[in-house]
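[agent] plan:
  1. take the single chain provided in the ticket
  2. run structure prediction with default settings
  3. attach structure tokens to the ticket
  4. add a short note for the reviewer (M.T.)
[agent] executing step 1
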Amino acid sequence: MGNSEVVTATDPHTCGMGVAVGVFEGKWKSFVMWALSERPRRFGETRRLVTGISEKVLTQQLRELQADGIVHREDYDEVPPRVEYSLTERGRRLYELLELLSAWGRDHLAVRTGAVSDDGLGAPRQDFPVAGP
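[agent] step 2 finished; step 3 output follows
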């Protein structure tokens, strides 16, 4: 076999699941993506939609999502300056997966609380929730 490096399935740098989760992990990134899912938004509008997030943290999250190719920042050469954020195509694809995960979570919660029986199915919905304080 030679001197090839052994890579485990849980190595976050080589495991597809680890890489994917790493892009949206944390308290706020999925909610920032939710806020940008319908259309481009300015910083202040995004902050109002994602209740409980500070300006500093929103700035950090937007920069990280931009570095990962999930969010696009558009600077307009206007006075006063205007900046809009939107999901890239890669970001839209990831958001579709987050919608499926959200639907699964709602279904799982309903089963755990006894509201419905478990059929193992869940349809994606467009009402991805906003985090609270």
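[agent] step 4 note for reviewer: The chain has a mean pLDDT of 84.
[agent] ticket updated
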